[in-house]
């Protein structure tokens, strides 16, 4: 009797595993439930970051939570810091891509996106140089008076996203941030490599990154719009595109947490 029970248990476990490891729906007759199952990811000897990105270009995302009564002083301080790095440190492979203040979401927050060309070696060189500059250290010390907290992530750009292009005029940006289940980054990339094609009609795609150091399995998608109304119309148009709903159905099960912020460029931001 014990032997029969063990055999039945193994058979049930085998059946369950086959169900969980389902592949994408083959035809439209598949149930909606099958779209919620994460597709099987095959083992690979390549690191996920090497398969999804060029590691010679690294971005640093600085998130600063500012004291509500100190935003003006903080902005002046950071503007001076950017000018110092640009003028005095021309030998550094470091370039400011964008600076934003949060308008909707985490209020009293500023985001700064820096680009390093040449891999982590250039980040090490820049850090070594700046941390021996008295003027830079003085600016950092003054800035600490205006901050509640801060966070730094090193990011890699998804290779299938369009190249970052600086924008002009009065734009707003949306940063949609996702915390994924560990081990699902390749699955995310496979789906978004198709999904991004549905979001190119209005030149809305600005940048797409995944974290390399800092909070891991984080993804940031940054979109550019003329206004909140433009955002609404553009997103509704994407849902009318055949195939977009399928991409969403496959990526939702990969997400543990997500949130969005509406951003406004600072006066010294290279992209407006």
TrEMBL record:
One of its GO terms (biological process) is mitophagy. InterPro entries: Dimeric_a/b-barrel, NIPSNAP, NipSnap_domain. Residues 59-160, 173-270 form the NIPSNAP domain. It comes from the Eukaryota. GO terms for cellular component: mitochondrion. It holds the Pfam family NIPSNAP. Belongs to the NipSnap family. This is Protein NipSnap. The lineage of its organism: Eukaryota, Metazoa, Ecdysozoa, Arthropoda, Hexapoda. The gene is 101893400.
């Amino acid at each position: 009797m014990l032997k029969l029970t063990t055999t039945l248990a193994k058979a049930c476990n085998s059946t369950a595993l086959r169900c969980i490891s389902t592949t994408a729906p083959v035809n439209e007759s598949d149930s909606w439930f099958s779209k919620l199952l994460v597709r099987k990811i095959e083992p690979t000897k390549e690191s996920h970051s090497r398969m999804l990105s060029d590691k010679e270009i690294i971005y640093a995302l600085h998130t600063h939570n500012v004291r509500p009564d100190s935003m003006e002083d903080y902005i002046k301080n950071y503007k001076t810091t950017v000018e110092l790095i640009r003028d005095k440190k021309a030998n550094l492979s470091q370039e400011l891509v964008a600076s934003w203040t949060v308008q909707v979401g985490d209020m009293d927050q500023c985001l700064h996106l820096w680009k390093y060309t040449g891999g982590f070696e250039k980040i090490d060189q820049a850090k070594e140089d700046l941390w021996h500059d008295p003027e830079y250290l003085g600016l950092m010390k003054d800035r600490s008076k205006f901050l509640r907290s801060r966070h730094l992530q090193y990011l890699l750009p998804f290779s299938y996203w369009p190249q970052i292009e600086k924008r002009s005029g009065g734009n707003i940006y949306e940063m949609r941030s996702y915390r994924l289940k560990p081990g699902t980054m390749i699955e995310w990339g496979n789906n978004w490599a198709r999904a991004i094609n549905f979001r190119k009609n209005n030149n809305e795609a600005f940048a797409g990154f995944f974290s390399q150091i800092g909070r891991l399995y984080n993804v940031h998608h940054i979109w550019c719009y003329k206004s909140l109304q433009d955002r609404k119309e553009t997103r509704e148009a994407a849902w009318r595109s055949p195939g977009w709903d399928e991409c969403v159905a496959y990526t939702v099960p990969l997400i543990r947490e997500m949130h969005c912020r509406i951003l406004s460029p600072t006066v010294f931001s290279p992209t407006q």
